Amino acid sequence: MGKEAFPDTHHSHSENTYLGFWIYLMTDLIMFATFFAVYGVVRNNTFGGPSAKDILDLSYGLVETLVLSTSSFVCALGLRAALTNQKQKMISLFGLTFLLGITFLTMVGFELTHIVQSGYSWEMSAFLSSYFTLMGTHAAHIVIGLIFMAVFVAQVGFWGLTDVTKKRMTTLSMFWFFSYIVWIFMYTIVYLIGAQ
Amino acid sequence: MENREEHHLTSIKSYFFAYLLTVGLTLVAYLIAVNSLFSPAALYITVAALGLGQAFIQLYVFFELGKELKPRWRLGVLLFTIMVTVIIVFGSIWIMYNLNYNLME
Fold this sequence. Notes:
Chain A is mainly alpha-helical. Chain A is built from six helices and no strands.
């Protein structure tokens, strides 16, 4: 007899949450796509200001990429620990994910303040506006992800790994993986291709 | 129940494998771009392909899109979103390039 003969209502309920969250992530992707389209259109409109080549450091971006990809990987291990009911392991793995996320955010913060302090603010040219919009929107996602990570891990600490907290950790992880996928395009389009 | 859930989980080994591939593709793309190994057009295409490959690995392993049971709603939504994304990005660049060409040159 097939699985369909025993409808697991709770399981399918979680699946609905994941599908809904996935659709939200996809709409988020469309928002990022419009920002990337703007970047593609205006990336040479520097209005006498600096171009991508002048302000972006590919090696610095590489370190940011490695930090965030490691964070995403550790997050996957943490989620696996959560789904296999290893509470202590899950808390330490998500703690590491959180620290790597903070490291990434600090690096982006230094990068953006350095550009502004060099006298190149987002008001200067269409290129800089679109660059700051992209970086700022992505950094905002990281900030929100970190806040939810702190809250949900605390909930696991108080309530243990229940169905509800597992569901929250799963959606949070989906959000975190998604942030890294967007960053792949950020690094590829803005840094590697933009700064040629 | 417990066993069935365990069975559905992705193995730690494939997470490691995906992570190593991700780092490897990032490093290759970085080295190609820094050393300007190819002509601009070829370089854009190579680096973009490496990025897409990385995104595909992330979707397949971390989002477990390959394990989704039928009907594959998530995959369907993803494909639709990719279509919208391609129309937005390439449509914008195409239109604006033509405007620029016809009005400014």
